[in-house]
Amino acid sequence: MTSLDSVLDKDGVRLTVDDAVATVTLANPAKRNAQSPALWRALTEAGRALPGNVRVVVLRGEGKSFSAGLDRQAFTPEGFDGEPSFFDMARGPEAELDATIAEYQEAFTWWRRNDIVSIAAVQGHAIGAGFQLALACDLRIVAEDVQFAMRETSLGLVPDLTGTHPLVNLVGYARALEICATGRFVHAEEAERTGLANLVVPADELDAAARDLAGALLAAPRDAVVETKALLSGAVSRGYEEQRAAERAAQGRRLRDLAGITD
Q1: Half-sphere exposure of 158 (CA within 13 A, CB side)
Q2: Sheet holding 186-187, edge to edge
Q3: In this structure, are residues 10 and 41 in contact, taking their beta carbons and an 8 Å threshold?
Q4: What is the 3-state secondary structure (H, E, C) of 94-144?
């Protein structure tokens, strides 16, 4: 891939690639990068279009807001052009509704693939689906003006775009429940203190900080990072002895690879 090769640009999503670093940009600042089913399909497509040499993916939003969440047009009777309205979906068979939501979730699942490390660079509002998209990434750098909020419960809904699992893992059950049930804002200081954010920077330094972190992640050999990510991401579901065994197996693979031994 050539530097800043444009791979995809559609429905408010732009994917560019610069060697081992890909950048996914939410590119509809006029609507504060509000989300829709078309945008979710484009995000899914971006994940599938990543070249094999990509090791780090940076997710960012154009304009003053990372993403203001679900486009409110979803809650109108007519919905989005060419899409079934959410109300029509609710009236359909339960299995079809489940399958549709599962399709939407695919836009939020690929960011934690073991072969990449994803960084969300978040400024301004990250509300609802925007909060969940930031949570979908491995790491989060936030601007000092960031405002996270999970507003689904306030609308009579639940967070259903894969955000509940990472939120509980990061801040714990009690704080996650309080954040979701109240719909309140989480600002930069709290985000950093509770583990939602890895780093807080001034808004005009956000992109540079993401580039610096991407460069640091590329310093280690790819296979070692892949194995380490797999170890850490699976640690929550493994017991202590299971994790010890996983460490031994991973280290054995790395040592055999470094020694040039093939099975």
Answers
A1: 7
A2: 125-127, 147-149, 186-187
A3: no
A4: HHHHHHHHHHHHHHHHHHHCCCCEEEEEECCEEECHHHHHHHHCCEEEEEC
Residue found under tokens 């583990």: 195
Cα radius of gyration (the chain): 19
Unique residue bearing structure tokens 């939602």 = 196
Please name the amino acid found at residue 183: G
Spatial separation of the C-alpha atoms in residues 254 and 162, rounded to whole Å: 32
pTM above 0.90, yes or no: yes
Q: Is the separation of the CB atoms in 12 and 41 below 8 Å?
A: no
Longest dimension (CA), the chain: 63
Residue listed under structure tokens 């486009």: 71
89 contacts 97 by C-beta, under 8 angstroms: yes
Mark out the alpha helices in the chain (DSSP H runs). Answer: 37-48, 86-91, 94-109, 129-136, 164-171, 173-182, 188-194, 206-217, 222-235, 240-258
N-to-C CA span, the chain: 32
Distance separating alpha carbons of residues 40 and 44, to the nearest angstrom: 6
The 10s digit of each residue's pLDDT in 170-220 is 999 999 999 999 999 999 999 999 999 999 999 999 999 999 999 999 999
- What type of residue sits at position 46? A
Residue with tokens 């470094």: 258
Identity at 74, one-letter amino acid code: A
Structure tokens at 71: 């486009």
Residue 211 in tokens? 């580039």
